[in-house]
Structure formats: C-alpha cells, structure tokens
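FAQ

Q: What does a record look like?
A: Structure on top, sequence underneath. For example:
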C-alpha cells in the first residue's frame, strides 16, 4: 500500500504517513483503483451537491462538500488538514483564511465587484491557495466554484474539458493558470475555466 500512495502523481498533494493510513477501502492496491474509487465518490457528491440550492459561502458547507466527495475513500475527508504542506497556508491560517475568502466573495457578489465568472474563478483559486484539506483541494474548489456559479444564475465552468484528447496538457494549462493567478495575473485562469 505504501508504494500505491507514495507514487509520484503530479495531480495530488503528497500525504503524510498517518494520512495515507486513513485509506478506507482495503481492496485498493493500485493507483488506478484509488483514482476510480475517488472518482465514483466525487460523482455521487456532485449529484448530491447540485440536487438542490446550497449555500456555498459557508465553512461548514465547504467541509461537508469535501466529506461527500472523499468520505468513502479517506477517513480525513471533510477535516481541516493537520500537517504543513509546501503549498497552502500555515495550519493556523486555514480557518481565518476561509472566513476571509467567504466574506470577500459575499462582498464581490453584493457589490457586483466582478462578474459571476470572475467571482467563481477567484473563489476557486483562493480555495486552492488556502489548501484546507490533506488532498483533493483542486477538485473540491472546482465543484465549489461551479455551485457558486449556478447560484449566481450561470452555467458551470468547463474547466478545460473541451480538450479531452490530451489530459496531461489540460492539467498543465490548469496548473499554469493557477500559478499565474498566484502572481495576480488571472487572464489565463479566466480563459481556462471556459475552455
């Protein structure tokens, strides 16, 4: 099992040994099995999340969404990470960062600071920057942004799905767009979310 969870996978944040020990399904021995189990869980969560109107701008809901997305695969699903990462804010800044992001986002909506697409893209990027969970932060932030968009009367983002022939290129474009947004250059991200 250790080889399974320590393999290089540029799509996910490395887990601590303790976090790796929190894998729920005992049948998983290969990375494709893990990916499949997570994807099944995420699809169920997506159906649940979009089944009715949700208040995305709540720390409680953001934790519940993560739990729904990964709760059948990882025991730590929906729990704020307890270990430092080479990305994301320090542990003690996670909850204040989430509260600040929620307040900022509500202000942007209330005062029409940005259009709905820009609000949702900035919201997703900031969630990834905070990196509140041990893993799954990118996937979580994309569904949360889509829920926010729908609540604002817009269609979900495509997140690069128009290029299904080269998934590795799509992932690279997404990561490049996030890195540019880290430097306050959001143009690539705004383009990517609708590509």
């Amino acid at each position: 099992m250790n080889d399974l969870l320590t393999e290089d996978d540029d799509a996910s944040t490395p887990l601590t040994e303790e976090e790796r020990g929190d894998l729920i399904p005992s049948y998983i021995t290969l990375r494709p099995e893990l990916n499949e189990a997570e994807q099944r869980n995420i699809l169920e969560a997506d159906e649940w999340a979009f089944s009715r109107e949700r208040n995305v701008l709540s720390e409680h809901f953001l934790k519940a969404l993560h739990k729904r997305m990964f709760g059948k695969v990882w025991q730590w699903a929906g729990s704020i990470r307890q270990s430092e990462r080479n990305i994301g804010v320090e542990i003690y800044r996670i909850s204040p960062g989430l509260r600040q992001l929620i307040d900022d986002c509500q202000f942007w909506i209330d005062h029409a600071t940005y259009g709905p697409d820009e609000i949702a893209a900035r919201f997703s990027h900031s969630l990834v920057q905070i990196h509140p969970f041990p893993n799954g932060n990118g996937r979580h932030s994309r569904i949360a942004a889509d829920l926010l968009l729908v609540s604002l009367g817009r269609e979900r983002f495509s997140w690069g799905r128009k290029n299904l022939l080269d998934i590795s290129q799509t992932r690279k474009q997404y990561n490049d767009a996030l890195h540019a947004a880290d430097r306050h250059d959001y143009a690539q991200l705004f383009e990517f979310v609708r590509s």
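Q: Is there anything notable about this one?
A: The domain at 2-157 is CATH 1.10.3290.10 (Fic-like fold).
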